[in-house]
Amino acid sequence: MRFYRIGDKVVGRDKLVDQIEAILADREGGATQHEAATAHGVDRSFVSWLETLGEVRRGKRVALIAFPVANSADVRRVCDERGVEMSMVVSQAEREGFEAGRADAVFNLVLDTLADLKDFDVVVILASTKRTGAIEKILGREVIARPLGQSPLRHDVEVDLEELADLLDAVLAPAPAKGE
């Protein structure tokens, strides 16, 4: 644990982090700022200040699914830099690992992932032509498909990071104010 001596006080970094995480978890769970503040013995304005301090972006909830990807770590980094809330980026080797698993486990993973995707406003999918069409039909919401190649696609594909960044920036851009 990291401690800070401030005058005659000793402040624990981990204690601060734990309290902040608990406040934010309450807010994420639906508590109002007032409710979260009361539960943790702080002012409501402090909760507001925390949210402002940590804000990454506002707007649509965006997820990205991409497979099979050669530069998966770089794709995840681009997503993280832009505040994409869910990114599932899989290489062909990882995909084959899933496929080699028990059928019920694979089926449950697919169902759980599809259920999770229902909570997002926009889903960006980078995959083979067959997969992108299926996801669009299943989700029935805004899906932005960028095919990585023709089906069946059984090898890793290098994602153009600049193109991906431009796409995500466009999706995440705030909507213009009315009258603009």
Continuous helix count:
8
Radius of gyration: 21 Å
Helix content: 40-55%
Low-confidence stretches: none
Q: How would a textbook summarize the main sheet? A: 4 strands, parallel
Order of helices and strands: EEHHHEHEHHEHEH
Query: How many DSSP-defined strands?
Result: 6
Taking all residues together, what is the mean pLDDT? Answer: 89
Secondary-structure class? alpha/beta
Q: How are the strands of the largest sheet arranged?
A: 4-3-5-6
Query: Strand portion, in percent?
Result: 15-25%
Overall body shape = elongated
Cα separation of the termini: 51 Å
Total separate domains = 2
3D architecture notes:
With 180 residues, this protein is of the alpha/beta class. It folds into two domains: 3-54; 62-172, Rossmann fold, CATH 3.40.50. The chain has eight helices and six strands. The protein has helices spanning 13-28, 33-40, 44-54, 72-82, 92-99, 103-117, 129-139, 161-172; strands at residues 3-6, 9-12, 62-66, 86-89, 122-128, 142-149. The strands form two sheets. A four-stranded parallel sheet has the order 4-3-5-6, with helices on both faces. Strand 5, helix 7 and strand 6 (142-149) form a beta-alpha-beta unit. Helix 1 runs antiparallel to helix 2 (33-40). The model has no long low-confidence stretch (mean pLDDT 89).
